[in-house]
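Input/output pair, single chain:
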Amino acid sequence: MASGQLGGWITPASTAPVETAPEAVDAGTLTEIFRRFHAAEPEPKGELHYVNPFTLLVAVVLSAQATDRGVNLATGPLFAVADTPETMLALGEENVRSYIRTIGLFNTKAKNVIALSRILVEQHGGAVPASLEALQVLPGVGAKTASVVLNIAFQVPRIAVDTHIFRVSNRIPLFVGSTTDKVQAGLEAIVPEPYRLHAHHWLILHGRYTCKARKPECPRCLIADLCRYPAKTAA
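Output:
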């Protein structure tokens, strides 16, 4: 997987949509948008490195307020010595802290990684639960982190909304919502079932590399003719 930025699960500073957008696209257009995403990249992948559901969970927890590239640089050596809750507990908080020192909020994150590892060992037999409710009670794990883990590790069609997806959804617009939670609920309700599993990755990658915040690359966008964003960039 290439390195990149997960988006940090940062809730947008404003609760208003990123740009004033026209009415959301109709169902037929929505389907065609995702058909094109699928045709261009049938099996999109996330950019965080991991080796199993536990390391994915840890990587996503560490990615808050951080780039995927920065997280990958730290977790490569960390996962080489601790890739299960048991080995992470044996490593200890101080040592975990030393591995992730280059990541923002590393003190809090080290505490959370050890605490969630202990809960997984004591309450789940060392396995990552495939339940939104069980995941959300783990230290450092919120609804968005849980949705990412469910989607990637367990193939549950959740669409966790970061700043990229929030912007893309409101800009095209697919679903217009004032908060990330509203956009997630809206997208999960309207994205056609055949495309729902991979929608999270398609939208993040589209927002990260094409539909950028400051200067979207509209001339090379594969859905430019379907997008209703009124301020498209010229070639």
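The radius of gyration is 18 Å. The longest helix spans residues 106-124.
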